[in-house]
Amino acid sequence: MVHLLKYDGVRSVAPVLGAMLARTVRRLELGPGVVVVAVPLFPAKERVRGYNQAVVLADAALRGLKGFVTGHSALRRVKNTESQFALTPRMRRMNLRGAFVVADAAKIAGREVLLVDDIYTTGATARECARVLMKAGAGRVWVATLARAQTEGVAAWDGLRVMPWAGAESLQE
């Protein structure tokens, strides 16, 4: 289903996926006012795809997260990075360095942030986004994804193991 949303343009799966993600996030019992930020795509890539699957997913999850607020505009991707697919974990980190900036620090200052993405592979994207958000003044940053990629060398998922399709972890610097 994630593949359908991300690569095939089947946005009709988003409500189901968003509800699944929201159900998992609710188990964290986060307080009201959490700012939900989707991992941004580079603008040219989003124009080609026609949408950002992380935004579609986050918006669908927000319907089931009372008291959470949208903050997608707080984070922007400013570097057109190469595809992460074939990169090693170290190369992914280097590829993403400087790729994200906080565009609206007031929106996240002192607040808990729920960063939403579709797939967690090595954590490079989540960590870089969290680093930038926290440097700009965000409080705790939580990461929620629908899927955890299984790759060689990855023995376990460190996140919230509520269901095999979702994970969340708090990232602190």
From TrEMBL:
<dbReference type="InterPro" id="IPR051910">
    <property type="entry name" value="ComF/GntX_DNA_util-trans"/>
</dbReference>
<protein>
    <recommendedName>
        <fullName>Phosphoribosyltransferase domain-containing protein</fullName>
    </recommendedName>
</protein>
<feature type="domain" description="Phosphoribosyltransferase">
    <location>
        <begin position="55"/>
        <end position="150"/>
    </location>
</feature>
<dbReference type="InterPro" id="IPR029057">
    <property type="entry name" value="PRTase-like"/>
</dbReference>
<comment type="similarity">
    <text>Belongs to the ComF/GntX family.</text>
</comment>
<dbReference type="Pfam" id="PF00156">
    <property type="entry name" value="Pribosyltran"/>
</dbReference>
<dbReference type="InterPro" id="IPR000836">
    <property type="entry name" value="PRTase_dom"/>
</dbReference>
